[in-house]
Amino acid sequence: MNFYNKIVDLYGAKRIAQIERYSSQASDIQHNLFSDLISKASSTAIGKEYDFKSVKSYADFVARVPVRDYVAFHPYIERMLKGESNVCWPGNVQWFAKSSGTTDAKSKFIPVTTDALKQCHYRGAQDVVICYVAAHPQTELLKGRCLTLGGSKEISKMSSKIQTGDLSAILIGNAPLWSDLLKTPKRNIALLAKWEEKLEKIVNSTIGQNVTWLAGVPSWFLILLKHLLEVAGKENLQQVWPNLELFIHGGINFTPYREQYKQLCPNGIHFMETYNASEGFFGIQTQEDANMQLMMDYGIFYEFVPLSEIGNPFPHTYTVDNVELDTDYAVVISTNGGLWRYMIGDTIRFTSLNPHRFIIIGRTKHYINAFGEELMIANAEYALRKACEQTDAEIREYTAAPVFMDIKNQGCHEWLIEFDKQPSSTAKFAEVLDNALREVNSDYDAKRYKNITLAAPKLTIARSGLFYDWLKSKDKLGGQNKVPRLSNNREYIDSLLKIN
């Protein structure tokens, strides 16, 4: 066991034991954390507004504080951005993660407190390494470097005390200097604002290094890695980095990309999924053959809202005590970052309650329900995987939207797909896609019955590079920027089709 493994093993044994207690003590951990959050924020502006000092139970909290999305919570954030202290968390908030989400033009500014950095984001990153080393004690992961691919936004100052930037830039900028021994590229390259310039410099600076693990968003990493192989004149990644053994991924569904990464690493590679956002670090795939596990002690108190109650400021909510399997919930959080009953916009489904493991279903605003079909991203990903398997295709990017019915034509769904590998038959691809959607979604199946309400899907093949060019035109290259997978209107797909 090498030096770094010994350090991780010494600290990790205790941490692994704490994570294992999630199975039997999740309720106690979460409710003790809830009490601690309430106590610490009781003298803040929001704490006084809702009289946190007299909150004696979760029921008191639920009765007083409404569930809010970013727009509704923004007045508090605006006060923090102006430098006001003790608004939603003790002290001043110096850092704000700037994010426009998947599609919104207007930027969001998520407060990132010192407590959130240390107790949530960095703890999550440490736990990823600890869980991997514990599962692979003979790993040589820490003998090499981790190639990280973060956002392409530099830190900018809004005032002498307030700084904003992509979350990854904030994390890189605040990380201890010793962590640079394990990471590549150097900070000055990692924080470059121009994606294409950064791409070239990362490739040129890492070809000769001992890269043993990768961490980032699969779609953007794929662009980097393919370019690296072109520059290096190699056929696969392990000809460039012989000791590469792990890819830590998150941000988007990995299913459409898994086979491509396996092809890039013919000697085998391990995968670990994480669920990390500007609002917090929520989940880790603590076991390689299992779904992600909800992390209970990162300073985040979780609530879960059934999708039928979204929009109600005081919806019926569930905690880890009483969530159920195979039910779709919107995630609501109260955190040491100063967010209170904040709906982050993601929907999840629990696949295990001992411990709490889950899959991400989609976004509360990203679905298609133009005809009552309630099509979610999880349905789409399942059906696309089936279609790819049966037509030997590989997808790079896609989006889907309704084609609305008129006097002469029925409604349907249009799928705009950019392939890395074209299907053997586009007609069969569309047929398998349709049948798989009918199999997994009873509402879609009902609307497709005899084509009465919904016609068969329309498949449109995107030219190579379409989605990249579209994101570039919006200055959204790199980082956490994502193509909107599903939309209930045609705003995004029509803008893509204009340049197809």
Task: Give the SSE layout.
Layout: H1 3-20, H2 22-40, H3 45-49, H4 58-64, H5 70-81, E1 95-99, E2 108-112, H6 114-135, E3 145-149, E4 156-157, E5 163-165, H7 167-174, E6 183-184, H8 187-190, H9 195-206, E7 211-216, H10 218-232, H11 237-240, E8 246-249, H12 255-264, E9 270-277, E10 280-284, E11 292-294, E12 300-306, E13 328-335, E14 342-353, E15 356-363, H13 377-391, E16 394-403, E17 412-421, H14 426-440, H15 442-448, E18 458-461, H16 466-473, H17 491-498
Parallel strand pairs: 1-5, 3-6, 3-7, 7-8, 8-9, 17-18
Antiparallel strand pairs: 1-2, 4-5, 9-10, 10-11, 11-15, 12-13, 13-14, 14-15, 16-17
Shape: globular
How many β-strands, per DSSP? 18
Fraction of residues in helices?
Answer: 25-40%
Strand order of the largest sheet: 6-3-7-8-9-10-11-15-14-13-12
Structural category: alpha/beta
Pick out the low-confidence regions: none
Tell me what you see in this structure:
With 500 residues, the protein is α/β, with parallel strands linked by helices. Helices cover 38% and strands 21% of the residues. The protein is built from 17 helices and 18 strands. It has helices at 3-20, 22-40, 45-49, 58-64, 70-81, 114-135, 167-174, 187-190, 195-206, 218-232, 237-240, 255-264, 377-391, 426-440, 442-448, 466-473, 491-498; strands at residues 95-99, 108-112, 145-149, 156-157, 163-165, 183-184, 211-216, 246-249, 270-277, 280-284, 292-294, 300-306, 328-335, 342-353, 356-363, 394-403, 412-421, 458-461. The strands form three sheets. An eleven-stranded mixed β-sheet has the order 6-3-7-8-9-10-11-15-14-13-12, sandwiched between helices. The chain is globular and about 60 Å long. The mean pLDDT is 90.
